[in-house]
Amino acid sequence: MKKTDVEVQSDVAMQDVADVAVDQEIQETATAETTPAFDDVAEQMKEQTEREKQIEADKLLPPDPDALLEVRHLKKHFVLKKTLMGKPLATLKAVDDISIKIRPGETLGIVGESGCGKTTMGRTILKLHQPTGGQIFFEGQDIAGFTPKQMRALRTKMQIVFQDPYSSLPPRSTVGDILSEPVKVHKIVPPDQVKEYVLGIMEQCGLRDYYYERYPHEFSGGQRQRICIARALAVAPKLVVCDEPVSALDVSIQAQIINLLKKLQKERQLTYLFISHDLSVVKHISDKIGVMYLGSMVEFGGTKAIFDKPLHPYTQALFSAVPNPDPNEKVERIILKGDIPSPANPPKGCKFHTRCPKAMEICQHIAPKYREYDEGHFVACHCYEQE
Question: Whole-prediction pTM value?
Answer without folding.
Answer: 0.84
